[in-house]
Amino acid sequence: MSWDCCSVNFFIGFRFYSSTSSSDPFKSLVTINGIVSNAVAVYKTPVSEKRAINRDLCDKAGIYTWVNKVNGKAYVGSSVNLSKRITHYFSPGYLSNNASHVIAKAIRKYGLINFELVI
């Protein structure tokens, strides 16, 4: 079986919603580095949407992607507790204690304001 990196589609099995779209679930389709995905949620400004992120992701497991708005690079991670994991990225202490992590370096370099969060 061969995988074409540019035609990967994924779906996470709970309802569609987006903090930036209307009630149409297909509005949450996003393109990340040429890959179209069915996003469950897209937070264009995670710093200002922190409360919504915590509320929406409470007690949910899944896959998340931090997309750098400056250079287009993406970091993909997963967690059994998305709310807890994402909250870590807002903590300067967590970022400095995990200084060797690629995403921690990028967030410290570019600032969280230059990232989008895709669930």
Describe the structure in your own words.
α1 (50-57) packs antiparallel against α2. This protein is α+β, with helices and mostly antiparallel strands. The strands form two sheets. Strands 3-6-4-5 form a four-stranded antiparallel beta sheet, covered by helices on one side. Strands 1-2 form a two-stranded antiparallel sheet. β4 (62-68) and β5 (74-79) form a beta hairpin. It has four helices and six strands. It has a single domain (25-118), classed as 3-Layer(aba) Sandwich (GIY-YIG endonuclease). Helix content is 25%, strand content 23%. The model is unreliable at 1-28 (pLDDT under 50).
What's the architecture in CATH terms? Answer: 3-Layer(aba) Sandwich
Average pLDDT level? 77
Derived from helix and strand composition plus strand pairing, the structural class reads alpha+beta
Helix percentage range: 25-40%
Uncertain stretches: 1-28
Distance between the termini: 27 Å
The biggest beta sheet reads:
4 strands, antiparallel
CATH fold field value: GIY-YIG endonuclease
**Main β-sheet, spatial strand arrangement:** 3-6-4-5
Q: What fraction of the residues are assigned to beta strands by DSSP?
A: 15-25%
Rg: 14 Å
- CATH class bucket: Alpha Beta
